[in-house]
Write a structure and sequence with these properties.
The complex is a heterodimer of chains A (330) and B (292). Chain A is mainly α. Chain A has one domain. Chain A has helices at residues 2-13, 22-33, 38-60, 69-84, 90-112, 117-137, 139-142, 167-189, 191-201, 203-208, 213-239, 249-262, 268-287, 291-306, 310-329. In chain A, helix 3 runs parallel beside helix 8, helix 3 (38-60) packs across helix 13 and helix 12 crosses helix 13. By secondary structure, chain B is mostly helical. Helices cover 72% and strands 2% of the residues of chain B. Chain B has helices at 2-36, 43-61, 65-86, 96-118, 144-166, 168-178, 180-185, 190-211, 222-225, 227-236, 242-262, 267-281, and strands at 134-136, 141-143. In chain B, helix 5 packs across helix 6 (168-178). The longest helix of chain B has 35 residues, at 2-36. Chain B is globular and about 60 Å long. Classes of the chains: A mainly alpha (330), B mainly alpha (292).
Chain lengths: 330, 292
Protein backbone atom coordinates (compact mmCIF):
# COMPACT_ATOMS: atom_id res chain seq x y z
CA UNK A 1 0.00 0.00 0.00
CA UNK A 2 2.60 2.53 1.11
CA UNK A 3 4.80 1.25 -1.67
CA UNK A 4 2.12 2.00 -4.26
CA UNK A 5 1.58 5.49 -2.88
CA UNK A 6 5.27 6.26 -2.75
CA UNK A 7 5.75 4.96 -6.27
CA UNK A 8 3.01 7.12 -7.71
CA UNK A 9 4.56 10.02 -5.82
CA UNK A 10 7.87 9.02 -7.34
CA UNK A 11 6.39 9.36 -10.81
CA UNK A 12 4.80 12.75 -10.10
CA UNK A 13 8.08 13.94 -8.64
CA UNK A 14 9.78 13.59 -12.01
CA UNK A 15 7.47 15.74 -14.03
CA UNK A 16 9.56 18.59 -15.34
CA UNK A 17 9.31 21.77 -13.33
CA UNK A 18 10.67 25.22 -14.03
CA UNK A 19 12.63 25.11 -10.77
CA UNK A 20 14.96 22.70 -12.48
CA UNK A 21 16.33 25.47 -14.65
CA UNK A 22 17.58 27.36 -11.60
CA UNK A 23 20.89 25.49 -11.17
CA UNK A 24 21.76 25.98 -14.81
CA UNK A 25 20.76 29.63 -14.79
CA UNK A 26 23.01 30.06 -11.74
CA UNK A 27 25.80 28.18 -13.51
CA UNK A 28 25.58 30.42 -16.59
CA UNK A 29 25.48 33.53 -14.40
CA UNK A 30 28.56 32.24 -12.57
CA UNK A 31 30.38 32.16 -15.91
CA UNK A 32 29.86 35.87 -16.45
CA UNK A 33 30.05 37.12 -12.88
CA UNK A 34 33.03 35.20 -11.50
CA UNK A 35 35.34 34.43 -14.44
CA UNK A 36 38.32 34.11 -12.06
CA UNK A 37 36.76 31.12 -10.36
CA UNK A 38 36.03 29.06 -13.47
CA UNK A 39 38.50 26.28 -12.58
CA UNK A 40 36.64 25.85 -9.28
CA UNK A 41 33.38 25.82 -11.24
CA UNK A 42 34.72 23.11 -13.53
CA UNK A 43 35.77 21.04 -10.53
CA UNK A 44 32.28 21.49 -9.06
CA UNK A 45 30.64 20.24 -12.28
CA UNK A 46 32.92 17.18 -12.38
CA UNK A 47 32.27 16.45 -8.71
CA UNK A 48 28.53 16.92 -9.20
CA UNK A 49 28.50 14.34 -12.00
CA UNK A 50 30.35 11.89 -9.76
CA UNK A 51 28.02 12.54 -6.82
CA UNK A 52 25.07 12.07 -9.16
CA UNK A 53 26.36 8.66 -10.20
CA UNK A 54 26.57 7.67 -6.55
CA UNK A 55 23.06 8.98 -5.88
CA UNK A 56 21.75 6.65 -8.60
CA UNK A 57 23.00 3.54 -6.80
CA UNK A 58 22.58 4.62 -3.18
CA UNK A 59 19.60 6.96 -3.29
CA UNK A 60 17.50 5.02 -5.77
CA UNK A 61 18.61 1.40 -5.72
CA UNK A 62 19.76 1.35 -2.09
CA UNK A 63 23.17 -0.16 -2.90
CA UNK A 64 25.41 1.25 -0.15
CA UNK A 65 28.89 1.23 -1.68
CA UNK A 66 32.07 2.85 -0.44
CA UNK A 67 34.02 1.86 -3.54
CA UNK A 68 32.70 4.13 -6.26
CA UNK A 69 36.07 5.86 -6.56
CA UNK A 70 37.16 2.84 -8.61
CA UNK A 71 34.93 3.83 -11.53
CA UNK A 72 35.93 7.49 -11.32
CA UNK A 73 39.56 6.37 -11.42
CA UNK A 74 38.99 3.96 -14.30
CA UNK A 75 37.34 6.74 -16.29
CA UNK A 76 40.18 9.14 -15.54
CA UNK A 77 42.95 6.69 -16.42
CA UNK A 78 41.11 5.49 -19.55
CA UNK A 79 40.88 9.06 -20.85
CA UNK A 80 44.53 9.66 -19.96
CA UNK A 81 45.73 6.49 -21.67
CA UNK A 82 43.67 7.22 -24.77
CA UNK A 83 45.24 10.66 -24.96
CA UNK A 84 48.69 9.15 -24.46
CA UNK A 85 48.13 6.72 -27.32
CA UNK A 86 47.28 9.57 -29.66
CA UNK A 87 43.48 9.77 -29.50
CA UNK A 88 42.70 13.33 -28.44
CA UNK A 89 39.09 13.90 -29.56
CA UNK A 90 37.47 14.84 -26.23
CA UNK A 91 33.79 13.81 -26.57
CA UNK A 92 34.48 10.32 -27.90
CA UNK A 93 37.17 9.93 -25.22
CA UNK A 94 34.59 10.59 -22.51
CA UNK A 95 32.17 8.09 -24.04
CA UNK A 96 34.90 5.47 -24.34
CA UNK A 97 36.00 6.05 -20.72
CA UNK A 98 32.40 5.68 -19.57
CA UNK A 99 32.09 2.44 -21.50
CA UNK A 100 35.25 1.03 -19.89
CA UNK A 101 34.00 1.91 -16.41
CA UNK A 102 30.56 0.41 -17.13
CA UNK A 103 32.24 -2.73 -18.45
CA UNK A 104 34.12 -3.25 -15.17
CA UNK A 105 30.87 -2.70 -13.28
CA UNK A 106 29.16 -5.36 -15.40
CA UNK A 107 31.99 -7.75 -14.56
CA UNK A 108 32.09 -7.10 -10.81
CA UNK A 109 28.40 -6.36 -10.25
CA UNK A 110 27.01 -9.89 -10.39
CA UNK A 111 29.52 -10.93 -7.74
CA UNK A 112 29.32 -7.90 -5.43
CA UNK A 113 25.62 -7.17 -5.60
CA UNK A 114 24.70 -10.51 -4.11
CA UNK A 115 25.99 -9.10 -0.85
CA UNK A 116 23.89 -6.82 1.32
CA UNK A 117 24.45 -4.59 4.30
CA UNK A 118 27.73 -4.80 6.11
CA UNK A 119 29.52 -7.33 3.90
CA UNK A 120 28.73 -5.20 0.83
CA UNK A 121 30.03 -2.05 2.49
CA UNK A 122 33.23 -3.77 3.50
CA UNK A 123 33.90 -5.58 0.25
CA UNK A 124 33.39 -2.41 -1.81
CA UNK A 125 35.71 -0.55 0.55
CA UNK A 126 38.22 -3.39 0.22
CA UNK A 127 38.03 -3.50 -3.57
CA UNK A 128 38.60 0.25 -3.71
CA UNK A 129 41.70 -0.01 -1.48
CA UNK A 130 43.09 -2.92 -3.50
CA UNK A 131 42.54 -1.18 -6.84
CA UNK A 132 44.24 2.01 -5.69
CA UNK A 133 47.15 0.01 -4.27
CA UNK A 134 47.37 -2.01 -7.51
CA UNK A 135 47.44 1.18 -9.58
CA UNK A 136 50.33 2.36 -7.42
CA UNK A 137 52.27 -0.83 -8.19
CA UNK A 138 51.45 -0.97 -11.92
CA UNK A 139 53.54 2.08 -12.65
CA UNK A 140 54.24 1.07 -16.29
CA UNK A 141 50.52 1.62 -16.94
CA UNK A 142 49.50 4.31 -14.49
CA UNK A 143 52.72 6.19 -13.88
CA UNK A 144 52.56 5.11 -10.23
CA UNK A 145 53.08 7.91 -7.77
CA UNK A 146 53.99 10.42 -10.49
CA UNK A 147 50.74 9.91 -12.36
CA UNK A 148 50.24 10.75 -16.02
CA UNK A 149 51.05 14.44 -16.52
CA UNK A 150 50.87 16.66 -19.58
CA UNK A 151 47.75 15.20 -21.22
CA UNK A 152 46.71 17.06 -24.35
CA UNK A 153 43.24 16.94 -25.87
CA UNK A 154 41.93 18.30 -29.19
CA UNK A 155 39.62 21.32 -29.21
CA UNK A 156 35.99 20.45 -28.39
CA UNK A 157 34.07 19.87 -31.66
CA UNK A 158 37.30 21.02 -33.41
CA UNK A 159 36.27 24.60 -32.59
CA UNK A 160 36.80 25.47 -28.94
CA UNK A 161 40.39 25.16 -27.85
CA UNK A 162 41.23 24.44 -24.18
CA UNK A 163 42.07 27.95 -23.05
CA UNK A 164 44.19 28.95 -20.09
CA UNK A 165 41.31 30.92 -18.54
CA UNK A 166 39.28 27.70 -18.23
CA UNK A 167 36.26 28.99 -20.16
CA UNK A 168 36.07 26.04 -22.54
CA UNK A 169 36.59 23.53 -19.77
CA UNK A 170 33.84 25.07 -17.65
CA UNK A 171 31.20 25.19 -20.37
CA UNK A 172 32.21 21.73 -21.60
CA UNK A 173 31.88 20.20 -18.11
CA UNK A 174 28.60 22.05 -17.55
CA UNK A 175 27.23 20.66 -20.81
CA UNK A 176 28.15 17.15 -19.69
CA UNK A 177 26.46 17.74 -16.36
CA UNK A 178 23.32 18.75 -18.22
CA UNK A 179 23.41 15.66 -20.44
CA UNK A 180 24.04 13.35 -17.49
CA UNK A 181 21.23 14.92 -15.51
CA UNK A 182 18.76 14.46 -18.39
CA UNK A 183 19.79 10.80 -18.69
CA UNK A 184 19.55 10.21 -14.95
CA UNK A 185 16.15 11.92 -14.75
CA UNK A 186 14.81 9.83 -17.58
CA UNK A 187 16.08 6.64 -16.01
CA UNK A 188 14.78 7.24 -12.50
CA UNK A 189 11.35 8.28 -13.74
CA UNK A 190 11.03 5.24 -15.98
CA UNK A 191 9.41 2.03 -14.79
CA UNK A 192 12.95 0.70 -14.32
CA UNK A 193 13.65 3.57 -11.92
CA UNK A 194 10.50 2.86 -9.95
CA UNK A 195 11.43 -0.84 -9.81
CA UNK A 196 14.80 0.18 -8.33
CA UNK A 197 13.07 2.17 -5.61
CA UNK A 198 10.90 -0.86 -4.99
CA UNK A 199 14.02 -2.95 -4.45
CA UNK A 200 15.37 -0.38 -2.02
CA UNK A 201 12.16 -0.27 -0.03
CA UNK A 202 11.33 -3.95 0.04
CA UNK A 203 13.52 -6.34 -1.85
CA UNK A 204 11.63 -9.43 -0.77
CA UNK A 205 8.36 -8.11 -2.12
CA UNK A 206 10.00 -7.26 -5.44
CA UNK A 207 11.31 -10.80 -5.67
CA UNK A 208 7.83 -12.15 -4.90
CA UNK A 209 6.24 -10.23 -7.75
CA UNK A 210 8.88 -11.68 -10.03
CA UNK A 211 11.23 -8.75 -10.55
CA UNK A 212 14.70 -9.79 -11.77
CA UNK A 213 16.32 -8.07 -8.79
CA UNK A 214 19.97 -8.96 -9.39
CA UNK A 215 20.00 -8.03 -13.06
CA UNK A 216 18.21 -4.75 -12.37
CA UNK A 217 20.77 -3.93 -9.69
CA UNK A 218 23.65 -4.82 -12.02
CA UNK A 219 22.09 -2.65 -14.74
CA UNK A 220 21.89 0.44 -12.54
CA UNK A 221 25.35 -0.30 -11.13
CA UNK A 222 26.79 -0.32 -14.66
CA UNK A 223 24.91 2.83 -15.62
CA UNK A 224 26.14 4.58 -12.51
CA UNK A 225 29.69 3.37 -13.14
CA UNK A 226 29.44 4.81 -16.64
CA UNK A 227 28.42 8.18 -15.23
CA UNK A 228 31.28 8.01 -12.74
CA UNK A 229 33.53 7.22 -15.71
CA UNK A 230 32.31 10.39 -17.44
CA UNK A 231 33.25 12.37 -14.34
CA UNK A 232 36.68 10.72 -14.25
CA UNK A 233 37.34 11.46 -17.93
CA UNK A 234 36.29 15.09 -17.49
CA UNK A 235 38.62 15.30 -14.50
CA UNK A 236 41.48 14.11 -16.71
CA UNK A 237 40.58 16.53 -19.50
CA UNK A 238 40.11 19.59 -17.35
CA UNK A 239 43.29 19.06 -15.33
CA UNK A 240 45.49 17.62 -18.08
CA UNK A 241 46.77 15.29 -15.39
CA UNK A 242 45.71 12.05 -13.73
CA UNK A 243 47.27 10.85 -10.49
CA UNK A 244 46.58 8.26 -7.86
CA UNK A 245 44.23 10.60 -6.00
CA UNK A 246 41.69 9.94 -8.77
CA UNK A 247 41.46 6.40 -7.40
CA UNK A 248 41.68 7.31 -3.74
CA UNK A 249 39.03 5.68 -1.59
CA UNK A 250 38.24 9.09 -0.10
CA UNK A 251 36.69 10.21 -3.39
CA UNK A 252 33.86 7.74 -2.93
CA UNK A 253 33.46 8.58 0.74
CA UNK A 254 33.39 12.32 0.09
CA UNK A 255 30.85 11.91 -2.71
CA UNK A 256 28.69 10.01 -0.25
CA UNK A 257 29.08 12.89 2.16
CA UNK A 258 27.96 15.32 -0.53
CA UNK A 259 24.73 13.58 -1.42
CA UNK A 260 23.87 13.09 2.23
CA UNK A 261 24.62 16.71 3.08
CA UNK A 262 22.06 17.93 0.61
CA UNK A 263 19.56 15.09 0.53
CA UNK A 264 19.85 11.58 -0.79
CA UNK A 265 17.82 10.19 -3.70
CA UNK A 266 16.87 13.44 -5.39
CA UNK A 267 19.53 13.98 -8.12
CA UNK A 268 19.60 17.75 -7.62
CA UNK A 269 20.85 16.97 -4.15
CA UNK A 270 24.06 15.76 -5.78
CA UNK A 271 24.51 19.14 -7.45
CA UNK A 272 23.74 21.20 -4.35
CA UNK A 273 25.93 18.87 -2.29
CA UNK A 274 28.84 19.20 -4.70
CA UNK A 275 28.59 22.99 -4.63
CA UNK A 276 28.42 23.19 -0.83
CA UNK A 277 31.16 20.65 -0.37
CA UNK A 278 33.56 22.16 -2.89
CA UNK A 279 33.02 25.69 -1.61
CA UNK A 280 33.63 24.59 1.99
CA UNK A 281 36.69 22.67 0.87
CA UNK A 282 37.99 25.61 -1.14
CA UNK A 283 37.49 28.10 1.69
CA UNK A 284 38.89 25.80 4.35
CA UNK A 285 41.91 25.03 2.19
CA UNK A 286 42.63 28.72 1.76
CA UNK A 287 42.66 28.94 5.51
CA UNK A 288 44.60 25.77 6.30
CA UNK A 289 44.71 22.67 4.08
CA UNK A 290 43.82 20.41 6.99
CA UNK A 291 40.89 22.29 8.46
CA UNK A 292 38.52 21.09 5.79
CA UNK A 293 38.73 17.48 7.02
CA UNK A 294 37.49 18.82 10.33
CA UNK A 295 34.82 20.93 8.66
CA UNK A 296 33.44 18.09 6.59
CA UNK A 297 33.41 15.77 9.61
CA UNK A 298 31.43 18.27 11.66
CA UNK A 299 29.03 18.81 8.75
CA UNK A 300 28.41 15.08 8.43
CA UNK A 301 27.77 14.58 12.12
CA UNK A 302 25.40 17.55 12.25
CA UNK A 303 23.44 16.49 9.18
CA UNK A 304 22.90 12.93 10.38
CA UNK A 305 22.16 14.13 13.88
CA UNK A 306 19.72 16.93 13.14
CA UNK A 307 18.34 16.79 9.63
CA UNK A 308 17.26 13.54 8.02
CA UNK A 309 16.86 14.83 4.48
CA UNK A 310 19.94 17.03 4.31
CA UNK A 311 19.87 20.63 3.13
CA UNK A 312 17.15 20.13 0.50
CA UNK A 313 15.11 18.07 2.99
CA UNK A 314 15.30 20.93 5.47
CA UNK A 315 14.21 23.38 2.74
CA UNK A 316 11.29 21.09 1.88
CA UNK A 317 10.21 20.98 5.50
CA UNK A 318 10.54 24.75 5.72
CA UNK A 319 8.46 25.41 2.60
CA UNK A 320 5.83 22.87 3.72
CA UNK A 321 5.64 24.62 7.09
CA UNK A 322 5.28 28.03 5.43
CA UNK A 323 2.56 26.71 3.14
CA UNK A 324 0.63 25.30 6.08
CA UNK A 325 0.90 28.59 7.95
CA UNK A 326 -0.34 30.49 4.88
CA UNK A 327 -3.30 28.12 4.53
CA UNK A 328 -4.34 28.42 8.15
CA UNK A 329 -4.16 32.18 7.89
CA UNK A 330 -6.39 32.30 4.81
CA UNK B 1 66.56 -26.28 6.28
CA UNK B 2 67.66 -24.20 9.20
CA UNK B 3 66.99 -21.11 7.12
CA UNK B 4 63.43 -22.21 6.38
CA UNK B 5 62.84 -22.98 10.02
CA UNK B 6 64.24 -19.63 11.02
CA UNK B 7 62.03 -17.85 8.49
CA UNK B 8 59.00 -19.78 9.69
CA UNK B 9 59.75 -18.82 13.26
CA UNK B 10 60.14 -15.20 12.17
CA UNK B 11 56.74 -15.25 10.47
CA UNK B 12 55.23 -16.93 13.50
CA UNK B 13 56.56 -14.42 16.02
CA UNK B 14 55.95 -11.31 13.91
CA UNK B 15 52.63 -12.57 12.57
CA UNK B 16 51.27 -13.54 15.98
CA UNK B 17 52.36 -10.29 17.63
CA UNK B 18 50.86 -8.31 14.75
CA UNK B 19 47.71 -10.43 14.92
CA UNK B 20 47.38 -9.85 18.64
CA UNK B 21 47.63 -6.10 18.23
CA UNK B 22 44.94 -6.34 15.57
CA UNK B 23 42.87 -8.40 17.97
CA UNK B 24 43.23 -5.88 20.79
CA UNK B 25 42.15 -3.10 18.46
CA UNK B 26 39.42 -5.06 16.70
CA UNK B 27 37.78 -6.62 19.74
CA UNK B 28 36.04 -3.36 20.58
CA UNK B 29 34.56 -3.26 17.10
CA UNK B 30 33.53 -6.90 17.41
CA UNK B 31 31.61 -5.89 20.52
CA UNK B 32 29.97 -2.79 19.03
CA UNK B 33 29.13 -4.41 15.71
CA UNK B 34 28.10 -7.77 17.03
CA UNK B 35 26.46 -6.80 20.26
CA UNK B 36 25.13 -3.34 19.62
CA UNK B 37 24.59 -3.62 15.85
CA UNK B 38 26.51 -0.43 15.17
CA UNK B 39 28.84 -0.06 12.21
CA UNK B 40 31.39 2.03 14.03
CA UNK B 41 33.78 3.10 11.30
CA UNK B 42 35.37 5.50 13.79
CA UNK B 43 36.76 2.66 15.84
CA UNK B 44 40.22 3.11 14.36
CA UNK B 45 40.08 6.70 15.58
CA UNK B 46 40.03 5.50 19.20
CA UNK B 47 43.16 3.46 18.52
CA UNK B 48 44.80 6.47 16.91
CA UNK B 49 43.88 8.75 19.81
CA UNK B 50 45.22 6.19 22.27
CA UNK B 51 48.47 5.93 20.35
CA UNK B 52 48.95 9.68 20.10
CA UNK B 53 48.17 10.22 23.78
CA UNK B 54 50.61 7.54 24.91
CA UNK B 55 53.44 8.61 22.63
CA UNK B 56 53.06 12.33 23.25
CA UNK B 57 52.95 11.77 27.02
CA UNK B 58 56.18 9.82 26.71
CA UNK B 59 57.90 12.28 24.37
CA UNK B 60 56.75 15.52 25.93
CA UNK B 61 56.08 14.76 29.58
CA UNK B 62 58.62 11.99 29.95
CA UNK B 63 56.18 9.61 31.63
CA UNK B 64 57.24 5.98 31.96
CA UNK B 65 56.02 3.71 29.15
CA UNK B 66 53.61 1.57 31.12
CA UNK B 67 52.07 4.62 32.79
CA UNK B 68 51.44 6.18 29.38
CA UNK B 69 49.61 3.04 28.28
CA UNK B 70 47.32 3.26 31.33
CA UNK B 71 46.79 6.99 30.82
CA UNK B 72 45.87 6.48 27.16
CA UNK B 73 43.35 3.78 28.03
CA UNK B 74 41.72 5.81 30.82
CA UNK B 75 41.47 8.98 28.74
CA UNK B 76 40.02 7.21 25.73
CA UNK B 77 37.48 5.34 27.90
CA UNK B 78 36.31 8.66 29.32
CA UNK B 79 36.15 10.17 25.83
CA UNK B 80 34.18 7.19 24.57
CA UNK B 81 31.63 7.58 27.37
CA UNK B 82 31.05 11.16 26.30
CA UNK B 83 30.81 10.25 22.62
CA UNK B 84 28.46 7.35 23.35
CA UNK B 85 26.04 9.64 25.18
CA UNK B 86 26.35 12.43 22.61
CA UNK B 87 26.52 10.59 19.32
CA UNK B 88 26.35 6.83 19.39
CA UNK B 89 23.18 6.62 21.45
CA UNK B 90 21.39 8.11 18.42
CA UNK B 91 22.68 5.34 16.23
CA UNK B 92 21.17 2.34 17.99
CA UNK B 93 18.64 1.02 15.50
CA UNK B 94 19.48 3.64 12.84
CA UNK B 95 20.11 2.59 9.24
CA UNK B 96 23.55 1.38 8.20
CA UNK B 97 23.93 4.44 6.01
CA UNK B 98 23.34 6.83 8.91
CA UNK B 99 25.77 4.89 11.08
CA UNK B 100 28.44 4.92 8.40
CA UNK B 101 28.07 8.64 7.76
CA UNK B 102 28.03 9.64 11.39
CA UNK B 103 31.05 7.54 12.29
CA UNK B 104 32.94 8.58 9.16
CA UNK B 105 32.23 12.14 10.23
CA UNK B 106 33.81 11.39 13.61
CA UNK B 107 36.73 9.85 11.73
CA UNK B 108 37.29 12.98 9.66
CA UNK B 109 37.09 15.17 12.74
CA UNK B 110 39.76 13.06 14.45
CA UNK B 111 41.97 13.04 11.33
CA UNK B 112 41.66 16.81 11.05
CA UNK B 113 42.34 17.35 14.75
CA UNK B 114 45.39 15.07 14.72
CA UNK B 115 46.82 16.86 11.70
CA UNK B 116 46.36 20.24 13.33
CA UNK B 117 47.89 19.09 16.63
CA UNK B 118 50.69 16.83 15.43
CA UNK B 119 51.30 17.71 11.79
CA UNK B 120 50.72 15.64 8.67
CA UNK B 121 53.71 13.31 8.97
CA UNK B 122 54.31 10.07 10.82
CA UNK B 123 54.67 10.73 14.53
CA UNK B 124 57.88 9.02 15.62
CA UNK B 125 57.81 6.48 18.44
CA UNK B 126 60.76 5.72 20.65
CA UNK B 127 60.47 2.49 22.57
CA UNK B 128 61.65 2.52 26.20
CA UNK B 129 64.98 0.95 27.04
CA UNK B 130 63.64 -2.30 28.40
CA UNK B 131 61.82 -3.05 25.13
CA UNK B 132 64.76 -2.27 22.87
CA UNK B 133 67.22 -4.87 21.80
CA UNK B 134 66.63 -8.53 21.17
CA UNK B 135 66.96 -11.90 22.84
CA UNK B 136 68.33 -15.15 21.47
CA UNK B 137 65.64 -17.80 21.21
CA UNK B 138 67.76 -20.66 19.89
CA UNK B 139 67.39 -20.33 16.12
CA UNK B 140 67.62 -16.58 15.83
CA UNK B 141 67.32 -13.36 17.76
CA UNK B 142 63.99 -11.69 18.31
CA UNK B 143 63.01 -8.19 19.35
CA UNK B 144 61.98 -7.95 22.98
CA UNK B 145 59.20 -5.61 21.89
CA UNK B 146 57.47 -8.34 19.87
CA UNK B 147 57.63 -10.75 22.77
CA UNK B 148 56.25 -8.09 25.11
CA UNK B 149 53.33 -7.51 22.70
CA UNK B 150 52.57 -11.22 22.57
CA UNK B 151 52.56 -11.50 26.37
CA UNK B 152 50.34 -8.44 26.70
CA UNK B 153 48.00 -9.73 24.00
CA UNK B 154 47.66 -13.09 25.71
CA UNK B 155 46.97 -11.34 29.02
CA UNK B 156 44.19 -9.33 27.35
CA UNK B 157 42.74 -12.52 25.89
CA UNK B 158 42.67 -14.20 29.30
CA UNK B 159 41.10 -11.14 30.97
CA UNK B 160 38.43 -10.87 28.29
CA UNK B 161 37.66 -14.56 28.55
CA UNK B 162 37.28 -14.25 32.32
CA UNK B 163 35.17 -11.12 31.93
CA UNK B 164 32.75 -12.65 29.46
CA UNK B 165 32.57 -16.19 30.82
CA UNK B 166 33.10 -15.79 34.54
CA UNK B 167 31.42 -12.56 35.64
CA UNK B 168 27.78 -11.57 35.84
CA UNK B 169 28.59 -8.59 33.62
CA UNK B 170 29.64 -10.99 30.89
CA UNK B 171 26.59 -13.16 31.36
CA UNK B 172 24.27 -10.14 31.18
CA UNK B 173 26.05 -8.84 28.11
CA UNK B 174 25.72 -12.18 26.36
CA UNK B 175 22.06 -12.29 27.31
CA UNK B 176 21.46 -8.79 25.97
CA UNK B 177 23.11 -9.72 22.72
CA UNK B 178 21.10 -12.89 22.29
CA UNK B 179 17.80 -11.21 22.98
CA UNK B 180 17.74 -7.59 23.92
CA UNK B 181 14.08 -7.28 24.84
CA UNK B 182 13.95 -10.38 27.03
CA UNK B 183 17.09 -9.20 28.79
CA UNK B 184 15.40 -5.88 29.48
CA UNK B 185 12.27 -7.65 30.71
CA UNK B 186 14.19 -9.58 33.35
CA UNK B 187 15.62 -6.32 34.63
CA UNK B 188 18.99 -5.96 32.95
CA UNK B 189 19.83 -2.31 32.29
CA UNK B 190 20.83 -2.82 28.67
CA UNK B 191 21.67 0.83 28.00
CA UNK B 192 24.17 0.92 30.85
CA UNK B 193 25.57 -2.42 29.76
CA UNK B 194 26.15 -1.14 26.24
CA UNK B 195 27.78 2.01 27.55
CA UNK B 196 30.20 -0.09 29.60
CA UNK B 197 30.86 -2.47 26.71
CA UNK B 198 31.50 0.46 24.41
CA UNK B 199 33.93 1.92 26.94
CA UNK B 200 35.80 -1.36 27.31
CA UNK B 201 36.02 -1.75 23.53
CA UNK B 202 37.30 1.78 23.03
CA UNK B 203 39.79 1.42 25.88
CA UNK B 204 41.17 -1.75 24.34
CA UNK B 205 41.43 -0.01 20.96
CA UNK B 206 43.45 2.73 22.68
CA UNK B 207 45.67 0.08 24.27
CA UNK B 208 46.17 -1.56 20.88
CA UNK B 209 46.98 1.75 19.24
CA UNK B 210 49.43 2.68 22.00
CA UNK B 211 51.19 -0.68 22.24
CA UNK B 212 51.17 -1.21 18.48
CA UNK B 213 52.49 2.26 17.66
CA UNK B 214 55.86 0.79 16.69
CA UNK B 215 54.13 -1.67 14.31
CA UNK B 216 51.31 0.46 12.91
CA UNK B 217 52.93 3.91 12.59
CA UNK B 218 50.94 6.83 13.97
CA UNK B 219 49.86 9.24 11.26
CA UNK B 220 46.78 11.41 10.79
CA UNK B 221 45.33 8.92 8.34
CA UNK B 222 45.61 6.06 10.81
CA UNK B 223 41.82 5.82 11.43
CA UNK B 224 41.14 5.17 7.74
CA UNK B 225 44.30 3.27 6.92
CA UNK B 226 43.81 0.36 9.28
CA UNK B 227 40.02 0.45 9.18
CA UNK B 228 39.90 -2.18 6.47
CA UNK B 229 42.07 -4.67 8.36
CA UNK B 230 40.03 -4.24 11.52
CA UNK B 231 36.73 -4.50 9.65
CA UNK B 232 37.87 -7.65 7.97
CA UNK B 233 38.65 -9.24 11.31
CA UNK B 234 35.14 -8.38 12.47
CA UNK B 235 33.49 -9.68 9.30
CA UNK B 236 35.40 -12.93 9.03
CA UNK B 237 34.82 -13.68 12.68
CA UNK B 238 31.09 -13.53 12.00
CA UNK B 239 30.03 -10.22 13.59
CA UNK B 240 30.16 -10.63 17.33
CA UNK B 241 32.00 -13.88 17.80
CA UNK B 242 34.77 -12.96 20.21
CA UNK B 243 36.50 -16.32 20.18
CA UNK B 244 36.56 -16.50 16.39
CA UNK B 245 37.91 -12.97 16.16
CA UNK B 246 41.07 -14.02 18.00
CA UNK B 247 41.65 -16.79 15.47
CA UNK B 248 40.92 -14.55 12.51
CA UNK B 249 43.15 -11.74 13.79
CA UNK B 250 46.09 -14.10 14.18
CA UNK B 251 45.49 -15.63 10.74
CA UNK B 252 45.38 -12.13 9.21
CA UNK B 253 48.61 -11.24 11.03
CA UNK B 254 50.37 -14.41 9.87
CA UNK B 255 49.24 -14.11 6.22
CA UNK B 256 50.19 -10.46 6.04
CA UNK B 257 53.63 -11.05 7.55
CA UNK B 258 54.26 -14.07 5.33
CA UNK B 259 53.04 -12.14 2.27
CA UNK B 260 55.39 -9.25 2.94
CA UNK B 261 58.31 -11.64 3.48
CA UNK B 262 57.70 -13.92 0.48
CA UNK B 263 56.47 -11.45 -2.17
CA UNK B 264 57.79 -8.08 -0.98
CA UNK B 265 56.67 -6.26 -4.14
CA UNK B 266 53.02 -7.14 -3.65
CA UNK B 267 53.03 -8.16 0.02
CA UNK B 268 51.07 -5.08 1.04
CA UNK B 269 47.93 -6.04 -0.75
CA UNK B 270 47.99 -9.82 -1.03
CA UNK B 271 46.18 -9.82 2.28
CA UNK B 272 43.41 -7.49 1.09
CA UNK B 273 42.77 -9.51 -2.05
CA UNK B 274 42.55 -12.70 -0.06
CA UNK B 275 40.26 -11.15 2.51
CA UNK B 276 37.89 -9.76 -0.12
CA UNK B 277 37.58 -13.19 -1.69
CA UNK B 278 37.01 -14.76 1.72
CA UNK B 279 34.33 -12.20 2.57
CA UNK B 280 32.52 -12.78 -0.72
CA UNK B 281 32.83 -16.52 -0.23
CA UNK B 282 31.65 -16.52 3.37
CA UNK B 283 29.77 -13.30 4.09
CA UNK B 284 28.65 -14.58 7.48
CA UNK B 285 32.11 -15.33 8.81
CA UNK B 286 34.96 -17.71 8.24
CA UNK B 287 33.95 -20.14 10.95
CA UNK B 288 30.20 -19.74 10.47
CA UNK B 289 28.24 -22.93 10.10
CA UNK B 290 26.18 -23.50 6.98
CA UNK B 291 22.88 -21.69 7.19
CA UNK B 292 20.07 -24.08 8.12
Amino acid sequence: MTLAIESSKALVQYRFSTYELIPFAVAIAFYFVLPDYLPLGTAICVTAIFALSLDLVIGYAGIVTLGHSVFFGIGAYSAALLSRSGWGEPVSTVIAAAAVAAFFALLSGPLLLRLRGLPLIMVTLGVASVVSEAANKLSWLTGGNDGLPGLIFDPVFKMFAWSIDGKTAYLYALAWLFVVLIVARTVVSSSFGVALQGIRQNELRMRLIGAPVLSQLVAVYALSAGVAGVAGALYAQSNGFVGLEALSVDQGVFALAMIVLSGIGRLYGAIVGAVVYMVVQYTAQQWDPYYWMLAIGVMLVLVVRFSKGGILGALDALSAGLKRRMETRL
Amino acid sequence: MEQILSAALFVLLYGVSYGLVLFIIAIGLVITMGLMQIVNLAHGAFAAIGGYIAVSLMNAAGMPYLATLCAAVVMVVLLSFVLERLIYVRLYGASHLDQILMTLGVNFIVIGAITILFGPNVYPVKLPGFLQGSVDLGLRRFEVYRIFVICLGLAVVVCLWALFERTSFGAKLRAAVDNRSIAQVIGIDVDRLFLLAFGIGSGLAALGGAVGAAMLPLEPYYPMKYLMLVLVVVALSGYGNIRASLGVAIIVGLIDTAGRLLVPAFGGFVIYLLLILLTIWRPDGLFAGRAP
